[in-house]
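Progress against Task 2.4 (sequence-to-structure conversion) is shown through the following example record, which the project officer requested during the mid-term review.
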Amino acid sequence: MPTFITRIELQSASLKDYQTLEAEMKKVPLKEIRKVGAGKLKTPSPVEFNFNGNFTLLQVTHEAGKAARKTGRAYRFTVIRERKLSMH
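Structure tokens generated for the chain above:
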């Protein structure tokens, strides 16, 4: 099952904007495990989400963009498909 690492950054955003982003990402129909540093969101900063499941890069990209647009802020994001290394 692939894992996708998604990092989203909102430009000129407040803490409330990132809270909106987090709420929108929780609505995403993908199985999602959230990672934000050491704990709860306290300051405006890029947020990272990990998605595990049988999804395509296009599906994850679409959902990340849709959630970021809901904040009303300019945004940029990166989606990486994690690849497991096999030891031979």
